[in-house]
Amino acid sequence: MxxxxxxxxxxxxxxxxxxLKAEIKETVVEYKSGDVLCEGLHVVDTAKTGKRxxxxxxxxxxxxxxNEKMRARxxxxxxxxxxxxxxxxxxxxxxxxxxxxxxxxxxxxxKLYRERMLSxxxxxxxxxxxxxxxxxAIGYCFGGTGVIELARSGALIKGVVSFHGGLDSPxxxxxxxxxxxxxxxxxxxxxxxKAPDIAAFEQEMKDAKVDYKLVxxxxxxxxxxxxxxxxxxxxxxxxxxxxxxxxWEEMKAFFARIFKTEG
Length: 263
Hints:
Elements: H1 2-22, E1 24-33, E2 36-45, E3 52-58, H2 66-77, E4 81-84, H3 98-107, H4 110-126, E5 130-140, H5 142-152, E6 159-163, E7 181-187, H6 195-207, E8 212-217, H7 241-259
Helix pairs in contact: 4-5
């Protein structure tokens, strides 16, 4: 009898867990940025009601991918309303080496990059689940560079989190436009982010009196949160499980601080 009850309890628990996961709703969203049609992804836990803290995700150099979609689900499971942006435009999902050329268009034209992100932010801001007073942005690699640019644009957001993004400071004076807090999560051995860029980034933040934090993970290189990057550090980009997990916890603590929530 006890065994049957135990099995029944476990079955009920598994069913409840399954039902809970089913509450995470994903919706493809088409929107315009200027004349360009973009295709992002909205993810939210529909088991919750009312407005909630919300997060914009900016993708890495190959465009909106499974990695960002996974992160969107993870954030939704934490209770956030999430919109994963599409910077390049619908159907533009380049792979290396074309990805580098596509990303380069925006890195060399920060005004255009900001416009694309602000269009996505507008979609998130207008979503009925969004608490407009509690909005943040995170980005990976190309997107990590992007969210800092988004902050420099003067966007009304509580904070940004850059995961292994570029930390150059092309327009240092724009640091004064930053209205929220900045968290930069960096691979200490990342060969693509040079020491002068890190120094310039920190100087910009200090000069503008931005509340910022730079965390460097020893042994981690570029793309340390992305399993698809493999595990060969000599290539300059590789997954690092310890840095991935630690940086996610750092982000959660950052959100707890800027949104004044738990977790």
